[in-house]
Specification:
Largest sheet of chain A: 16 strands, antiparallel, barrel
CATH topology of chain A: Porin
Subcellular location (chains A, B, C): Cell outer membrane
Order of helices and strands of chain A: EEEEEEEEEHHEEEEEEEEEEE
CATH architecture of chain A: Beta Barrel
Number of domains of chain A: 1
Radius of gyration of chain A: 21 Å
CATH class of chain A: Mainly Beta
CATH superfamily of chain A: Porin
Keywords (chains A, B, C): Cell outer membrane, Ion transport, Membrane, Porin, Signal, Transmembrane, Transmembrane beta strand, Transport
Number of helices of chain A: 2
Distance between the termini of chain A: 10 Å
Strand content of chain A: over 45%
Subunit structure (chains A, B, C): Homotrimer.
Membrane topology (chains A, B, C): Multi-pass membrane protein
Helix content of chain A: under 10%
Oligomer: homotrimer
Structural class of chain A: mainly beta
Protein name (chains A, B, C): Porin
Chain lengths: 358, 358, 358
């Protein structure tokens, strides 16, 4: 993901010694010709976000003096192919709000200081970060790791609304960490009053060529309620990346346990290989299997291989192509790029697109 | 409400003597931990707008020469906790449009000159301004005056769409005033063709420590139509603020008369007390009672006390805490921060949050 | 339509010899008092876009070196009277998404070079451009050509989502041209799998006082499907403008053939007459007739006359007034400014407004 381009110098009149402040307009426009084929139906699309999710955002930071600062981050997803916005989940129970531009990707207000960062609002969940950080395709496009695509981790697998988070400061010799508490905000006189409440923790170490991290999360859902989220969901995952210079090696393991449903187990191995000054080849194998509750129930599993190439025309603009193929077993019917495939059948797809950051 | 930060110098190529123009990106990010408790249910939330409503806006002004200027103001409400936008009322009859970012807070185009300002679009109604200007809590958060919270003033109590307004110029020795006409835009061949049409007028005087104003408004609604707005609504209110230096005293009286329903009567008294260079204590008592139509009908009434403290970390960033309690009588069931309480029972709540303007 | 005002100088730190890049915030605020009258009902509104459609947009260009550049354009329609956003059509089959701010007007990502421009996303269809370029009122407001207002050209008459377009470079001695392919993105196993797929081509010549162009488009729709678009739609149109200095003369002819429905035929003639340094008078006559399929079926037709005056207060701000009248025949019931009129009856309307670009 590219950094912002426009630092709007502000408050010039407030005196030379005053705090430096900025508001930044940023975004990504990513359009891709996307094709998917399965045994049931094929799909041809102009899609959005094959390399990085299309977005428009506004963020800023104000220096409060004494090493403190306040900052905000408003980031709206958008579909470059038809101009629509994204969806959010206002209660962490799958209650979507969509239709127009909304800051579904991130909407946070922070206080920062030597103590670290307190972050309030809608944000990525910490336990998602290992899935995306240690995926050669960064969980974007047709190559996205199957550990995310098949995940039974529920509504907070990627982001949570109503969160109160804390991030460790950046000067701990490579150690990093984050804790997050989020709320479902139900009335207190209903049976599922705690649905959507949860906690997520992540800790890691990045230094030189190495980056490793683990995460744990638990979200509460009453068993068999109407929202279809099953019962309580417990997620544990860890992963790492090692940069050998001529190749980066990535791997991750994830486990999602849903009371009453089963346990999902995911694994990924992959590489990113620089090609000349501007290119990168990406390869990955990922798999996810759901060990369902009950004797003699099938345990659907899906394997995925993905190969892609990104060519950077500049720091902000890239062209890319990705091919992927999934194999389904024991009743799984995962398909790529909005195609549909019958249980136990294959599906394949490709993206060919342009990504421009601003 | 903080002023904008970023004046984007524009039109540099148009010549030195030319008009000065600017477009400003502005906003507020306000996140608050909000708790409410009533006899029916409690609610714990990460909420938005405890001190000032969260928003994102764009505004600009163009100097037309000869003392004239054109300006626009687009201001969208947003919920910092989940990234969603606000709602508007497209016909002043309660017809909401929501789901994404919309300029529900204000969407106006103005021509300005020595004559004052002609303002077209969606805007605050003049008769709302006395409720917010003379409330120690500025009608934000759990401390908001009960004269607004219980108001039976209908869809245009705060804002109106489709308005044509006129504001007096600012050089009248402290006298200020505003008139506004707004339209419901119904077809002419329906019975309630005039629903949502209205007029609102406000006049005041601000000079040194004193600020007083009064307002009158009438909005047309056909009696007993489906939109539940009752019959014609007539609102009258006045209020004032006096700055004694060590304390600001605020007071207001409001009356909303709805044909077929009854008459609401509201009263508020409060103070704002500076504490050191960066702090402010806010206290208020407010009450609203509905004298319903008909003999032997109860006249529901609610009393509210609120106390808060705002600590400014900078001109743009503040932390704050507010506590409030309501007492219901004669069938009223007002509750705080999305809790619910039974008729004639109490409710209390608090906000604890951060407000950052940009 | 006014150009953008604010070129945000960016990437200052990236070195003097680096690419020039900019992101531009732009828009139009246009508010109009709009009245329409027909035999069934009248309508009085504060409307939006009487001279130019109200909008908010973000666009940028990045120089990639070697004559190449990447650019994006995100443009959201909005209603200045109530702050709402516009609607888009996500599948070119009339499937609307609306409610909040969405980039329904245009949402594109481009690669540009000596070869021309490759443009991906939601954009105007090439075959729409002759209708708007050769209408004295630019297809805005109550004066909009009847060749658009009565058109049976279907969902892609103005814009298409999911489009892949190519535009000729600008250095071809006055010749210009554009091709566009767009997709409905239906599943491959449904009967109407090709619905919303289409192609549109336009070529023209502009040099000195003359500008002429023709276009052809075909969009696929299965006959008698639920979306009400009829069968395949084939559109052909051409038009021109000649600038005599004291008057610009404009004309256009259009034909929309819908399998199973009939053929629409439109014609317009009009003028734009400069009045002093800042004014312009606009006059037009336009007509559209649908030759319906089947013997003894009526062929509804509507004639329109429109007259307007635009007075520019600056390059960005204008006041304007437009009057129009339509005459219906053979069952047509076209009406102006949201009034309604009975079949074969007249309707008239006017706009009186302000347009401010930023």
């Amino acid at each position: 993901m590219k950094k912002s381009l426009i630092a709007l110098a502000a408050l010039a009149a407030s005196g030379a010694a005053m705090a430096q402040s900025s508001v930044t307009l940023f975004g990504v426009a990513d359009a891709t010709f996307a094709y998917g084929t399965g045994t049931v139906s094929k799909k041809t699309q102009l899609a959005s976000g094959g390399l990085d999710g299309s977005r428009l955002g506004f963020r800023g930071v104000e220096d409060l003096g004494g090493g403190m600062s306040a900052s905000f981050h408003l980031e709206a997803g958008l579909n470059n192919d038809d101009g629509t916005g994204g969806t959010t989940d206002t209660n962490n129970q799958g209650k979507a709000a969509s239709g127009g531009l909304i800051f579904n990707r991130r909407s946070t207000l922070s206080l920062n200081g030597g103590f670290g960062e307190v972050r309030l609002g809608r944000d990525y969940t910490p336990h998602f970060k290992n899935l995306t950080a240690f995926d050669p395709f960064g969980t974007s496009g047709v190559g996205t790791t199957q550990t995310l695509k098949s995940s039974i981790g529920g509504p907070t697998t990627i982001r949570a609304s109503n969160s109160i988070g804390y991030l460790l400061p950046g000067n701990l010799g490579g150690f990093y960490g984050q804790g997050q508490f989020y709320m479902g905000e139900n009335d207190s006189n209903v049976a599922n009053k705690k649905d959507g409440n949860g906690v997520s923790l992540r800790a890691g170490y990045a230094n030189g060529p190495i980056d490793v991290a683990g995460a744990f999360a638990k979200t509460t859902y009453l068993l068999n309620t109407a929202n279809g989220t099953g019962g309580n969901i417990t997620t544990m995952n860890f992963g790492g990346k090692y940069d050998l210079g001529m190749v980066k090696i990535l791997g991750q393991y994830s486990q999602d346990k849903v009371i009453g449903t089963g346990t999902g187990k995911g694994l990924l191995g992959g590489v990113q290989i620089p090609v000349g000054p501007a290119g990168e080849v990406r390869l990955s194998f990922s798999t996810y299997k759901v060990v369902t509750v009950g004797v003699n129930t099938p345990d659907p599993a899906t394997n995925k291989i993905a190969a892609g190439y990104v060519h950077n025309l500049s720091k902000r603009t890239a062209v890319y192509g990705t091919f992927a193929n999934v194999t389904n077993k024991k009743g799984a019917e995962q398909a790529l790029n909005n195609s549909k495939t019958a249980p136990n059948k294959k599906s394949s797809g490709f993206d060919f697109g342009i990504r421009h950051s601003f």
